[in-house]
Automatic annotation (TrEMBL):
This is Uncharacterized protein. It comes from Streptosporangium canum.
Amino acid sequence: MATPNYPKSNGDVQRELRQGIIEAQAAAQNRVEFVQASKGLILPNLAGHPAAPASGVILYALAGHLWCKEADGSPHQLTS
């Protein structure tokens, strides 16, 4: 005898939504670490330039200087 194929209930949908939220929060915590202090955003000091973002810009620290990399791949040093 096969298991009947019941349609999803409201509880099933809510459970899936909760699981999706938990997974999204866990994924966000696994991104590049940063610390927000009273002086502003403190970026990690990277060993090299990161890959270009798909769109927009990415801010990062390298050798104690603030850099930004645009979607076209061009890096710009923002501090001297």
